[in-house]
Amino acid sequence: MKPIIILGIESSCDDTSASIVQDGVMLSNVTANQSIHASYGGVVPELASRAHQQSIIPVVHQALKQANIGKHDLTAIAFTRGPGLLGSLLVGASFAKGLAQALRIPLLDVNHLQAHVLAHFISQGQDNERMPTYPFLCLLVSGGNSQIVLAKGYDDMQVIGQTIDDAAGEAFDKCAKVMGLPYPGGPHIDRLARQGNPTAFVLNKPQIPDFNYSFSGLKTSFLYLIRDKSVHNPSFVHDNMPDLCASLQYTIIEILMNKVRKAAKELNINQIAVAGGVSANSGLRDSLQEHAARYGWQVYIPAFEFTTDNAAMIAITGYLKYQHNDFCSLDKVPFSRVTNKF
Ligand code: KG4
After folding, report:
1. 283 lines ligand 1 (CB under 6 A)
2. Do 217 and 91 belong to one domain?
């Protein structure tokens, strides 16, 4: 039988990525990161879309080359339709539409957040791969989102809890900025926290109902702690960097895991997955393993390359949609906002 070969394209924020998936197995996953944003302390949307324009053709070319696939071998093209930065999404969507038309093959539109959850189904063709079965819970934590998703099927996902203000990644990044660490601060805090005492400083934990999150109070309490202590000791941050990082990371993980525990208990689900950039955090990974041992959970933690934005998760979602004839027409346009179901 002819193989099903999907080209996936991701361009929702500041990574241009292309991937080839053949019959559900990833053959390539190529990503061009945009270092230009570091000097601005955050992603600049206009610069992001310009950089996507520069990168998209070489990245797709490289993904095809690494997979040893010609463009005429492609069965369909999957692209990120949203949520994300509109200018960035437009680059990937327009490219995907143009190429699909030229090759006369179908298009598959992919929800970026659904794809993060489905990243757990990326196969690299090895025997020992573990994948969740439905239903499972996914803690989706990135720079722009903090959600608990109830996944009942590849196309049946419900956001049962989400942040009412900042995302977990934003809390890491903004607190890192207060300490003078480079952007994005999450990985720096993770590294420094390993040498610190997580209970050295007590920070604010929100009291938010249901499975929702809030990180703005924590951010403010961190800012006030530094402001007040620095009055007496101007080098307070410098002197206490590992303890500050460890205390902050510990508190963010406590906030995240409290709600995951509550959701797992109330919904009686013991398969717990994690996704998004913050799932690279070593403390969060350790905490998930500890919970697995204590509560009998099956936990699913993605490989590092699939935690941040990547096209392999778009291609695998496209593959699942292709199998269900879930195609999209050319008039589907990108969207920027997060939805509660995907
Ligand atoms: O999913 P992602 O790559 O894209 C966006 O949502 O933009 O997530 C990026 C976020 C940033 O906030 C970054 O600081 C955070 O993930 N992050 C981490 C770690 N690695 C990346 N946060 C904590 N610890 C890490 N090791």
Report:
1. no
2. no
Verify cis geometry, omega within 30 degrees of 0, for the bond prior to 209: no
Residue nearest to atom 24 of ligand 1 (CA): 281
The per-residue pLDDT string of the chain (342 residues; one tens digit each, 9 = 90 and over) reads 899 999 999 999 989 999 999 999 999 999 998 888 877 777 889 999 999 999 999 999 999 999 999 999 999 999 999 999 999 999 999 999 999 999 999 999 999 999 999 999 999 999 899 999 999 999 999 888 899 999 999 999 999 999 999 999 999 999 999 999 998 999 999 999 999 999 999 999 988 999 999 999 999 999 999 999 999 999 999 999 999 999 999 999 999 999 999 999 999 999 999 999 999 999 999 999 999 999 999 999 999 999 999 999 999 999 999 999 999 999 999 999 888 888
- Cα-based angle 214, 80, 190 (whole degrees, multiple of 5): 40
Asked whether residue 244 is assigned to any structural domain, the reply reads yes
State in Å: Cα 117 to ligand 1 middle: 16
**329 within domain boundaries:** no
Domain residue limits at 57:
5-127+306-323
* Pair 319, 220 in one domain: no
Q: Could you tell which of 142, 284, 285 is best to mutate to test the pocket of ligand 1, judged by most ligand atoms within 8 Å of the CB? A: 142
| Cis peptide bond prior to 182, omega within 30° of 0 | no
Residues 61 and 101 reside in one and the same domain: yes
Ligand 1, atom 5, residue with closest C-alpha: 143
E strand spans, the chain: 5-10, 15-22, 25-33, 76-82, 107-111, 136-141, 146-153, 156-162, 271-275, 298-300
Q: Are residues 259 and 297 in the same domain?
A: yes
